[in-house]
Specification:
The structure is a single chain. The protein has about 450 residues and is mainly α. Helices cover about 75% and strands about 0% of the residues. The two termini are about 20 Å apart.
Length: about 450
Amino acid sequence: MATGQSPAAAKRVERLTWLIAIVAAIGFAFDSYVLLMLPLIVRPALIELLGVPGTHPSINQWVGYLFYVPAVAGGIFGLLGGYLTDLFGRRRVLVWSILLFAFSALASGYATSVQWLLFWRCCTFVGVCVEFVAAVAWLSELFPDPKRREAIVGYTQAFGSLGGLMVTVGYYLSVTYGDHLPLVRGGHEAWRYTLISGVIPAIPLILIRPFLPESPAWQEKKKAGTLKRPSFAELFQPEFRRTTIVTTVMMACAYAAAFGAIQQVPRIVPGLAEVRALPRPAQEQTVSAVQSFQEFGGLAGRIVLAFLAVRIFSRRKLLHVFQIPGLILLPLVFLIPATSSLALLEWGIGLVGFMTIAQFSFWGNYLPRVYPTFLRGTGESFAANVGGRMIGTSAALVTTNLVASMPGAMPPIKLAHAAALVGTAAYVIGFIASFWLPEPKQEQLPE
């Protein structure tokens, strides 16, 4: 409790602090929710909107577009959002970004063409990219105690994987019970119901928005007139250049492993011998079940990282706990179980998800500690959006374009081989780059 602060005032501050943590957790959960819909719904959505069978070459082409074009849009506007977070405050930008991705997800469920689906997915991605940067900066500045800050930021980010589990369950329920739901565009397509459900986080946010305070660290500097204007050029000054370049490369690698390999699994599963003979609803239920293994693995990975973040001092060693096993597991899983065994793929993709998704939480803990208040949102957004969203997600396009030149008797097997190549390359580059990752100079956030 601060000096001169009454017990009642201290309790009020504590309640507001936890209210912000809850909002951030909702944001993290649903930004994963709306992003991770795509691997589940992209195949049935394209079959309906393009009017072609699932093995048609145009499906593979549009999958690449739907993965990459929204990521580029999100990266560009997310970069601007990080700048605006430093300029106008964390709260305002966070709230509007969540509303944007929620209502654009709703609109995408009513898409009448693949072009409209692409447009609304771009809007959704923009909201998600901005939300991550604003939420991490806001949370980090709320908790002055380093250990508490590391734990809170880590555990709230774990809700990102909870969002992945939620969308897996949501898609399964849509496939199973969609016939009992109201008509959407004249049908009961599960992919539309799944997209529409992305509007859910807007409901509690509208109710609690009036009670949300601004970040004290940002607000005090703003009122005192000591808050420097953010600048992208500042990121490449000698003090921050190495940090900016290395974190951008490494975030690109983390996203490349996820988009270039892990998120291709829902299209690999229907090619397995145990799944090919099943009717379409049963195939989609199986896809959802396999995806749940990956999401449980990712959730466990985020929780373990949050636990280790306050116990392993070196950030590089903390990252290697996940990078080294992942580098071994990913190629093995995509070259063997992904082409031959449903049961082994379920457990294998769970382990790969554990090692890969945990690295996303690492950056939420690391980046606030290497940039000062006036540059925190801008620095985070550059690494996350230029590195992760714009460069890293292009791995999905690389994977889909490599499919034709890969060995294998069937398209899903070719896809598995392409995913193995791209995902392994991402891990190798990320691991090498980690040896240049600067260690934070102090436990406290730089002013």
